[in-house]
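Today's session is about reading a structure prediction critically. Students often jump straight to the picture, but the first step is always the sequence itself: look for stretches that repeat, for charged clusters, for runs of hydrophobic residues. Only then move on to the predicted structure, which in these notes is written as discrete structure tokens rather than atom positions. Here is the chain we will use throughout the hour.
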Amino acid sequence: MRRPWTQPSRAARALWTREFILLTLLLGTVGSAAGWMAWFYVLRHLPAGTTSMSSLGIPVVALMSSALQLGERPRAMELTGMLLVGAALAIVSWDTIRTHREVEALMGQE
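Below is the predicted structure for this chain, in token form.
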């Protein structure tokens, strides 16, 4: 499968105009603010343990996305880390399902 975005390009350098700088700052600020607002919403409605464990999956998704979109090949150490994170998430999920524990969303956040 040919991935043209992985080929080196001879693209022009970025033109650092006032409009470019303002739009970059605006998009970075709005994107970061939206991410933090979503994170705090999730923390308010889910137990902190569940939320923190699910955040371990973010690097796994990033590595898989870069492999699919950019054609990057993860090294053995990265694959091992992904497997360990996946195993940890599976064990915690299995234990929670097996014991049928009900956890209050705001428990421990007083």
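Discussion point for the tutorial: The mean pLDDT is 80.
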